[in-house]
Specification:
Elements: E1 2-4, E2 12-14, H1 15-18, H2 30-38, E3 45-47, E4 51-52, H3 61-71, E5 75-77, H4 85-99, E6 107-112, H5 119-133, E7 140-143, E8 147-149, E9 156-158, H6 161-173, E10 179-182, H7 186-194, E11 202-206, H8 214-222, E12 226-230, H9 254-263, H10 267-277, E13 281-282, H11 289-296, E14 303-304, H12 305-312, H13 314-317, H14 326-329
Parallel strand pairs: 4-5, 5-6, 6-7, 7-10, 10-11, 11-12, 12-13
Antiparallel strand pairs: 1-14, 2-3, 8-9
Helix pairs in contact: 3-4, 3-11, 4-5, 5-6, 9-10
Amino acid sequence: MMLFPSVSLLLLLSVPAIAAAALGSPPIDLNLQQRLSEGTSQFSKIPSLGFGTWNLDKSNVSEAVSAALHTGYRHLDCAAIYGNQKAVGKGIAHGLKSLNLDRSDIWVTSKLWNDHHDPNLVEEALTQTLHDLGLAYLDLWLMHWPVGNAPITGKSQLDYLQAWHAMEKMHKTGRVRNIGLSNFSPAQLKDVIEHSDTIPAVHQFEIHPYLPQTKWIKYQQKLGISVTAYSPFANTNPTYNSGKHDPPLLLTNFDMLAVAAKNGCTTAQVALVWGMSRGYSVIPKSSHVDHIKENFGALRCQLEEEDLDRVDQISKKYLKRFNNPSKGYGVKLFDGLEDA
């Protein structure tokens, strides 16, 4: 049975459509469940295949972003800490103009960095991000980490509720269409929901065949929270500096190669299709036009149910989280999640 056939240029994820029963999910009190069922988020849809801008080659950021738009991407993922939002903004402007597209034709996500968690600094951060990107509004603004910098000392500490409340205020201004989180634990997510008026529209975190996080994904989908996967190619990202005890590079994994060969796809496309078939968006990145086009070709890659099952099994041999800055921050992150 064909589980994931070829899809249209922009496969959109609708929150109600992707909601699924959670397996082994943490308990939710009845009052919270009622608030969730009433729906407090304006989130409606997000293109399932996006273009990431983390660690793009600084020499051609604008060109890569414009090339992504010309290839067909309509979902761009950015962040203040990436240090390239001005260049990304130039790429957006060039792509929209040359393609005769409107701002409303694309989805742009950015993120609040840790040094602006002080509620008095949140609006300043948003204003700077919009200025750098050359935009009047963001489709989605995420809190990058549940970690803020302490006043005076600047030391990292768990700090997110007050910053979230300040983001809620920005949401009401219309300069941010949706707000969400990134890299939160189950307890931290529950804390935000129980002490806020706005349910996070999206939660972005690390997901790939070496870190499937299936229960965590399903739990959030049940709550109506959409999920976005960063690092869909796992340790292929050189930033992660894989050690000798780490699993092989995902895109050279034997099972990935076998599935790709069987279906006439590349391993990168297999990784992306596997992710999208699970009901969340994925944000691969590349500075090279050939790879930008290859990744977008995932929308034409067809995998059978048995192929997706084979990819599912990879984590039984290799389970690895590659992005965990707990030691650097001096705080415990991802508590209660796989390979924390």
